[in-house]
Task: inverse folding
């Protein structure tokens, strides 16, 4: 991503509704669906500026990687120990069959080789362990936001299912999320395209608006995996390495 995007992310990630509500949602998914063991060994790949590290750290010690030098320095400061420089799908710096959970949160869309990346992640999980994955959904929603964030693609649900199965994963969860705000977000993006004012602006809304959006989005935390979500701005998946299977050759 562009350096300005990382700088803006670091300014917003403790207060902006998208970050705060999303962390609560992902924490709930980890507790209810991933169900890692106590003191789990966790790896976050492509951690950006490190805004998810504290949330993940509630479940066990966290290791992390980030390709961008500027973002990696921020993440290292937040984590309190070095964050590795790694470019998927090369995970040779990390041991095979070793992690109770790997998090890949809005990263796969940045990687040219998504298929190879999922296979490499599979090989680093312990048998029975899980990958927590989020990606942007709906290719038709492509906008200046995707361009500024250097996305290669947005995904359909069936595409993630096919990639997961090809890599050897079982699918514990594959669901849209950011569903309650989907009509608003989709409408704004479509309107901006029609008007020719497509923008990557992620400014912090006024406090009452930010609080309302945080509560609406965050309300999904207890619903994902319990109710079928027909659509959403993003997809969340829990992909599990079978307990008795060997990783693909």
Result:
């Amino acid at each position: 991503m562009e350096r300005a995007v990382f700088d803006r992310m670091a300014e917003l990630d403790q207060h902006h509704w998208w970050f705060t509500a999303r962390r609560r949602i992902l924490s709930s998914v980890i507790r209810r669906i991933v169900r890692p063991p106590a003191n789990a060994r966790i790896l976050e790949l492509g951690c950006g500026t490190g805004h998810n590290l504290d949330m993940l750290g509630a479940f066990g010690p966290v290791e992390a990687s980030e390709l961008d030098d500027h973002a990696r320095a921020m993440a290292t400061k937040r984590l309190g120990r070095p964050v590795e420089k790694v470019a998927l799908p090369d995970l040779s710096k990390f041991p095979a069959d070793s992690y109770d959970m790997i998090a890949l949160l809005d990263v796969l869309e940045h990687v040219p080789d998504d298929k190879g990346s999922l296979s490499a992640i599979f090989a680093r999980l312990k048998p029975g362990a899980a990958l927590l994955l989020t990606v942007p959904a709906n290719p038709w929603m492509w906008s200046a936001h995707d361009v500024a964030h250097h996305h290669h693609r947005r995904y359909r649900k069936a595409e993630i299912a096919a990639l997961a199965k090809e890599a050897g994963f079982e699918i514990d969860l594959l669901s849209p999320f950011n569903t309650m705000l989907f009509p608003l977000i989709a409408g704004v993006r479509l309107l901006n395209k029609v008007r020719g004012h497509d923008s990557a602006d992620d400014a912090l809304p006024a406090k009452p608006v930010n609080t309302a959006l945080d509560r609406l989005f965050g309300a999904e935390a207890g619903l994902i995996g319990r109710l079928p979500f027909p659509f959403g701005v993003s997809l969340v998946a829990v992909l599990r390495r079978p307990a008795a299977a060997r990783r693909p050759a």
Summary: The longest helix spans residues 17-34. The chain has a mean pLDDT of 91.
